[in-house]
Design a protein that fits this description.
The protein has ten helices and eight strands. It folds into two domains: 5-115, no CATH class; 133-254, Arc Repressor Mutant, subunit A. The two termini are 40 Å apart. The protein has helices at 5-36, 44-69, 72-79, 93-132, 162-172, 180-187, 195-201, 207-212, 229-234, 242-254, and strands at residues 134-136, 138-140, 146-149, 152-156, 178-179, 215-216, 220-222, 227-228. By secondary structure, the protein is mainly alpha-helical.
């Protein structure tokens, strides 16, 4: 598939919708089992057949879409799953396990396509970034949940955690102060940690905090990204020691 940002964005939206539909199928049938399983005339084999048919219908649609729109290695990745000897006691366990493997495979396809899109976009804007002299840039992927500084991983957030939800919103709203009430509304819950602690947990400590978070109080926070040379000079920002940062990342991986 030759890079076309608009078409790839549409394809990623479609695949994400298929991913959500797959999760909905699983949740619906597990719920149906829990409710109908209490009835005297409950037929688990009939429910398993219905569940299997729903999974197969979903699988065929997704597989065909990937086959029609992308390189065949992505189709192979989605359809040829690794085998395992996992045994599940739940009556719908084997079917759910099979569906889960396809859901994870589909998410991997989405991640690969997003990485391709992001690489192509970086290549397209390289000229503009050179002209504006981007010095430091934070990137965040909502699927891998990796927070990177100039391609060095600072941290990986836990899905749906306080850090993950807060940074997801902060990252999408740079260059302006965000009040704690706005952040809590976006996160869907009251914050249990102070903003300064969230920033620290995300890996923004010492000069990283000073560079990217010029405002962190108990009431508000502001995220600046990317950092261009002119801004860094005007604000007299400290230089980031990438060698020291890289050593710290390597040490954390070795532990």
């Amino acid at each position: 598939m030759q890079f076309d940002e608009e078409k790839l964005n549409e394809a990623l939206l479609t695949l994400n919708n298929y991913l959500f539909e797959g999760v909905q199928i699983k949740q619906a049938f597990l719920k149906k089992h829990d409710i109908d399983g209490q009835k005297e005339a409950f037929d688990v084999d009939s429910l398993k057949k219905e569940y299997e048919d729903a999974i197969n219908a979903w699988y065929r649609i997704v597989a065909q879409y990937i086959f029609d729109n992308f390189e065949k290695y992505l189709y192979f990745h989605f359809t040829q799953l690794k085998t395992d000897a996992m045994s599940i006691g739940h009556p719908l366990g084997n079917l759910t396990h099979a569906l889960d493997k396809h859901l994870f495979a589909l998410e991997e396809v989405i991640i690969r396509l997003e990485e391709r899109r992001n690489l192509a976009i970086r290549q397209e804007i390289a000229e503009k970034e050179h002209q504006t002299d981007v010095l430091y840039k934070i990137t965040y992927n909502e699927h891998t949940r990796e927070v990177k500084l100039n391609n060095i991983i600072l941290t990986k957030t836990d899905f749906n955690s306080e850090n993950d939800n807060c940074f997801n919103y902060i990252y999408a709203n740079p260059y302006r102060p965000i009040g704690i009430e706005e952040l809590e509304t976006a996160s869907g819950d009251k914050l249990k940690k102070r903003l300064a602690h969230i920033v620290r947990d995300l890996g923004f400590v010492n000069e990283l905090k000073n560079v990217f978070f010029p405002v962190v109080t108990k009431d508000k926070i502001m995220f600046i990204n990317p950092i261009i040379k002119q801004y860094a000079h005007e604000k007299d920002l400290p230089a980031i020691n990438f060698k020291k940062l890289g050593d710290k990342v390597r040490q954390s991986k070795e532990k």
